[in-house]
């Protein structure tokens, strides 16, 4: 078997869409347009739009030639991941926005009655922006609308794919208050959207091989002479701190489970080192498979 990995290149994906869905002259004009260059590299939300586009491309390629058995999308933390799900709706709002429709008014029949109002607005924008900037903006908007109406359709199709039985979502969090709050927010949103959720993975859960409570460890430490058993006292104190972390994590996980009892959970214990190589990755895999 084989494993392919990639990071999203937002600008390149945007350029590929332009080249694939317009003729050479129009594509070149749009690629050189300053507003397009700003949008494709730094505009808020562009990364989510392009992630949806790239996922659609990869899925279509896999359907054609069987490139992959499985496609995994690693999203940002939970609330930011929602931007990915909202990309089609945000794009529709952008394309249907009043300002874009006004800029396109001269080229659209139904808007010809607004020509007087448009020229007033155009004159004001000319004074503020300058004629060349306004022309660049109008050229960009016209090309953008014609090109990305198709993108809106593809984004909606990809969103439908994410809602299908061919897809499953796996939420990953740590046993910390803020992380579980974010996970709960995402789990609830997936439920509202009727997205398929396979479960919650709790990463870096603390464990102990000693069956000694924090209170008992501290009591034992108090019975030792501080000058004669410094190492033992330090070890018992560290153990007490660890047990308090474990108790806090269990409490948080129990609260999550009681409020969302239908969500399957898998716990991955905290490893002594970071997962930075294949060997440690295999260990994580073994921990996951051991709970199947």
Give your account of this protein's structure.
The protein has helices at residues 10-20, 24-32, 34-42, 46-65, 78-95, 98-103, 115-129, 131-162, 177-192, 214-222, 230-259, 278-289; strands at residues 169-174, 197-205, 265-269. With 292 residues, it is mainly alpha-helical. The chain has a 3-stranded parallel β-sheet, with helices on both faces. The longest helix is centred in the middle third of the chain and has 32 residues, at 131-162.
Keywords:
single chain, 292 residues, mainly alpha, 3-stranded parallel β-sheet, 12 helices
Mean pLDDT: 82
Distance between the termini: 23 Å
Task: Sum up the overall morphology in one term.
Answer: elongated
Q: How many strands, what sense, and barrel or not for the largest sheet?
A: 3 strands, parallel
